[in-house]
Amino acid sequence: MPNNQDTPAWIQPVMTATNIVHKLASPPSLEALPPATRSKARKGEPYRFPLDIIIEPTSEFGKRAQVLAATPGSAAFEIHCDEGKMVGGSESAPTPLAYLMSGMGFCLMTHITGYLHFTDLKIRRIRLELRANFHTTLGHVERGNQGIGGCDGIETRVILDSDEPLDRLQHFLSVCEEACIASQTIAHATPVSLKLVHNGQLCE
Question: Residue 104 burial by CB count (10 A; 0-12/13-18/19+): exposed, middle or buried?
C-alpha cells in the first residue's frame, strides 16, 4: 500500500482563479422533473444515483448549469459555458463539447488515481489525451439554421511512465475503463428522453 502522507509523483499542482465554476450556497429546486428517488444498494446489485442539472441561457450563446447534489449533503455547483467566436459566442467559458469531453477525461482520471491509491503500482507520470471526431451538417433555414450533429468516434491515449510489467498496466487500465461511468455511458447505447413542458404542462 502506498504511503498516504506522500504526495504521488503524478500529481501536477495547478493554481487557478476563475468564476466560471463556483459552489452554490443555496441550490435551486426542480420544476419539471419529479423528486429524485434514492435507495441503498442491495448486495450484488449496482449502486444507482441521480444527477440533476438545470441549464439556463445567460446570453444568446452563453449559458449556466446548476449542478444539484448527487448525494444528500454534497455540494451543488454553478458552471458557465459559452461558444467560440466562429459561431457567435464570446469565448468567455468552455464550449459544451469541451465540457462533455473533459467530463469523460475527468471521470476516467478519477478511477485511474483511485486505483493507484489502493494498490502498490509505481507510476511516475500520468497524462490523458482525448480526441473526439465530431461532425455536423450545415444548418438549414427550415430547421432554425441548425444542422444534424454526431460523433464518428473518440480516441483516448493514457500516457504512463512506469517500470511496471506491461500486462499489469494493461489490466489496470482495463479495470479503470470498465469502472468509468462516463466512458461506459458514451461507449454503450443509453436511453435518452426529451419531452416538452409547455407553460407548465408536460406534453406526452
Answer: buried
